[in-house]
From TrEMBL:
This is Peptidase PmbA. InterPro entries: Metalloprtase-TldD/E_C (IPR045569), Metalloprtase-TldD/E_cen_dom (IPR045570), Metalloprtase-TldD/E_N (IPR002510), PmbA (IPR047657), TldD/PmbA_N (IPR035068), TldD/PmbA_sf (IPR036059). Residues 231-447 form the Metalloprotease TldD/E C-terminal domain. One of its GO terms (biological process) is proteolysis. Residues 121-224 form the Metalloprotease TldD/E central domain. Belongs to the peptidase U62 family. Residues 34-90 form the Metalloprotease TldD/E N-terminal domain.
Amino acid sequence: MLTIAQAEDRVSTLIAAARKAGADAADALYVCDASTQVSVRLGRLEDVERSEGEDIGLRVFVGRRSASVSSSDLSADALAALVERAVAMAREAPEDPWAGLAPADRLLTGAAPDLEADDGADPAPAALRQRALAAEDAARAIAGVTNSEGASASAGRSVIALATSHGFARGYSTTGYSSSASVIAGEGLGMQRDYAYHSTRHFADLETADAIGRRAGERAVTRLNPGRLASGAMPVLFDPRAGASLLGHFAGAITGAAVARRTSFLLDKMGEAVFAPGIVVRDDPHRIRGLRSKPFDGEGLPTAPADLIADGMLTGWLLDSASARQLGLAPTGHAVRGIGGAPGAGATNLHLAAGALSPADLMGDVKQGLYVTELIGQGVNPVTGDYSRGASGFVIRDGRLAEPVAEITIAGNLIDMFRRLTPASDLEFRRGVDVPTIRVEGMTIAGA
């Protein structure tokens, strides 16, 4: 694995070679990932996996024509061939009026924010194994758990560097740790499975293995003997684990590509009330130790926190440079990219701000409703916002959680769902997309 300085030098050298070969402009991205994962099952070591790979991608422009190539071979000969191939491909590519690098005057300059994304730790495989075993033991100790799909613990480190022919060359590193357990409760056709996991940037922040295991076991046991729920319109509450997907649909609808192509159900909603008054949806790439925190985006623009929804109003799109040009707007520092291909746009650490009521208070007046803990399928139309997904969870009866239910379909339209959405007060930052418990009024339930 290269150091950050070495990675910056590598992408800068590649840019210089591309310009020398005839490219009018270019950018290059280096990514190296190294990780160790230990898996156990039924108290025995099942697998120890160590992986390390580095890749470099080059995008070149000849006029308005562009091409992208990538390689996992970083030798001098391989990179020289990469440059020649990229320039030759660009000369034959169709013209794209929106293609090009991010504006030079908008690139990150000066010191980058310290996001505490790399803790420098390197836990040994033996320590990961003990954590995985402890998580599975805690899950299997829950009464009613009858089998295990296993538990795991992992540790990894990444180095990322980006350079452009405008003179930008910056890099950063991140660490990542996770622990999980998945178990089965019950017997025969009545078996139910569930899981729990936690991921962090710092090893010291990782939840204890016992807590992860107990949560997995308790979730599986509470799902036993599910029934059906009568069809009708009723309030639906989403557990934070399931509710995060609603915010994912929102983020997808405000990306530049969806708006430019007119394939978004939030098209023409800029500056309008999309959620109820008081609702805030915030994207925060500067969250300390955040799972998606980063000092600059996929094109070298500085990142910054932003309220995408403020007091219920839609305030802006997520734009990379190409979609910004197409819409006649400025890029917003939300470019995302892989090693190959052009950048797109996306959110970083996205969350729905907490409300004033506890989850118990939020369901306190529900005579009959549904508390969703798992969603199944992909029945969401990004153009119209029509929403229909399989679900399982628990009946809400007289303001309290009652028996488990499964094989239910919940349906609505995301535009209506967002306007009828109320967040609870139990927000925790545990994922890349975080929400508290959410209540949505008047969804259609297809059950028994």
